[in-house]
Design a protein that fits this description.
Blueprint lengths: L3 H25 L3 H34 L8 H17 L6 H26 L1
Helix pairs in contact: 1-2, 1-4, 2-3, 2-4, 3-4
Keywords: Cell membrane, Membrane, Transmembrane, Transmembrane helix
GO cellular component, one term: plasma membrane
Protein name: ATP synthase protein I
Length: 123
């Protein structure tokens, strides 16, 4: 199985392509508010994934060293999600709220799909 860092790097590359598609959708379609929400949500989602990967690496080191295990940054990731929604509410005429929430989940859906594909190919 791949390491957490390798999985994250693959996920980040996929997210760049998806973000590029969202930017094209924002620029070329009349659904700018929806694509703006997807962009904002996806950016905060990949930030949350980065926080999770970083905290998991610290967690693994703490367990290996036998030291006290700290939080996985749940409060920080939750606050980041709240910030994304707050931005969407603040600029409601330009950013669609529901698509922002959907965008927050895009990295996690990609992670799930990538892991399913990995296990189907290797088992």
């Amino acid at each position: 199985m791949d390491g957490l860092r390798e999985i994250y790097e693959r996920l980040k590359k996929m997210m760049y392509f998806i973000l590029a598609a969202f930017v094209l959708g924002w620029g070329l379609t009349p659904y700018q508010a929806i694509f703006a929400g997807l962009i904002i949500g996806s950016l905060f989602g990949i930030y949350n994934m980065w926080i999770l990967v970083r905290r998991m690496e610290k967690f693994d080191r703490a367990v290996a060293e036998g030291s006290k295990v700290r939080s996985l940054g749940t409060a920080l990731r939750f606050a980041s999600g709240v910030a994304a929604v707050a931005i969407a509410i603040l600029f409601a005429e330009h950013i669609h709220l529901v698509s922002t929430v959907i965008g927050l989940m895009v990295p996690y859906v990609l992670l799930l799909a990538e892991r399913i594909i990995y296990h189907v190919k290797h088992h």
